[in-house]
Amino acid sequence: MGTLGKLLQQGTDYLNNEMKNEHEVGITASNAIKHGPFKPDGALNEGLILEGLNIMTELSKSAVKSFKNILTAEKDAIAAGKHDKTEKVEPKEPQKA
Questions:
Q1: Residue at 88 is within a domain
Q2: In-domain check, residue 10
Q3: Model pTM?
Q4: In-domain check, residue 8
Q5: Chain centroid, CA 30 distance in Å
């Protein structure tokens, strides 16, 4: 796996761990599964839907920030010469159809 692949895997692992720690997401998901997006009278449960959307938005912001931090740390490590190994990838010749 190349450097970018390793970096993407680290980012994915980190984000998966962050999401496991999000207690509110579990509560919202549980409520959505239990009650669905509808109230007992059949009306849309807008509050639950909005709560879920707000949490997803916050998770997305957190994910982007976390991934930026990982990329910055990797870039700084490479610049400082502290990166274990960087793989040079030669461009491939375009394949003819």
A1: no
A2: no
A3: 0.38
A4: no
A5: 21
Rounded Cα distance, 43 and 49, in Å? 12
Q: Where are the alpha helices (DSSP H) in the chain?
A: 3-20, 23-35, 46-79
Identify residue 38 by its one-letter amino acid code. F
Tokens of 73: 């740390």
Say how many domains are in the chain: 1
Dist CA 73 CA 92 (whole Å): 29
| Cβ atoms of residues 39 and 45 within 8 Å | yes
User: Which tokens belong to 62?
Assistant: 């957190």
The residue segments making up the domain with residue 40 are 19-79
The partner residues of 38 in beta bridges, in order of sequence, read 44
- pLDDT, one tens digit per residue, over 35-77 is 566 676 777 777 777 777 777 788 788 888 888 888 888 888 8
Average of per-residue pLDDT across 2-17: 67
